[in-house]
Amino acid sequence: MVKVPVGSVVKVDLWDSKKRRGMIKYNTNTMDLVRAESVFDLNKGDLALVIETHDSFVLVVPKDYYTDLIKDDNLTQIDIKRLVDIIFNILKEREEETGGILSFEELFSILKRTSIQHIITKKQLTKAIKQRKARFDRIKEGGVIHISLKPEDCIFDESIVLKLAKEHPYLTMDIIQREKNWSTLRANRLLAYFTEKKRCRKDSSYLTGERYFFFNI
User: Which terminus of the chain has fewer CB atoms gathered within 10 Å of its CB, N or C?
Assistant: First the structure.
């Protein structure tokens, strides 16, 4: 019987996409064919990573962008610095939909649907979002931790706010939320950024709330 070590990289030989099972090639001194299963779609010739092993049977995940985080074939260790880059990319991919903002739980749920679903832990994710040189912010609002793109990286949201500013004599939170249905966090982050960069002036003297007057638009 062949028992393939956990962490081994193998090649898919045959695969039934409907049943999500097939045969993989495991090369040692000889080449062995071993039965395999996976919750992910695989095709003949794909590389896969063994995450659980039994006699002549393995569970595998794709060898991909996410499993490349694993350090030295040790399924309990991942490269935190590379995880930081992956988090940034996840936020960037959702920039138009969410403004590049996700709660900790939302981000963890996304990672749990990838090929590292059996490996990633909340402890690892917490360590990643606390990295000092991360290209995103960690924001706590209403007791919920959010991970957010830095405002200067939100080109889409910036263009939306500037377009609204051209259409109105001033902007308020109500105007942005009424027209774009953004969360308070999403709108506040951009307005605070524009104010800090002196691209607009915030006036808090109105009874109806703060107004933002934009310059040179």
Answer: N
On whether the CB atoms of residues 177 and 170 are closer than 8 A, the answer is no
Fold of domain 69-149: Arc Repressor Mutant, subunit A (1.10.10)
3-state secondary structure of 21: strand
> What is the spatial distance between Cα 38 and Cα 172, in angstroms, rounded to a whole number?
50
Rounded Cα–Cα distance for residues 55 and 48 (Å): 18
In this structure, are residues 141 and 101 in contact, taking their beta carbons and an 8 Å threshold?
no
- Prediction pTM value: 0.88
Match 């097939």 to its residue by tokens.
Answer: 22
Instruction: Check for a shared fold between 69-149 and 153-214.
Output: yes
Superfamily grouping for domain 9-63 = Nucleic acid-binding proteins (2.40.50.140)
| Distance, CA of 153 to CA of 151 (rounded, Å) | 5
pLDDT band at 82, cuts 50/70/90? very high
In whole numbers, what is the pLDDT of the chain averaged over residues?
93
The structure tokens 């045969």 sit at: 23
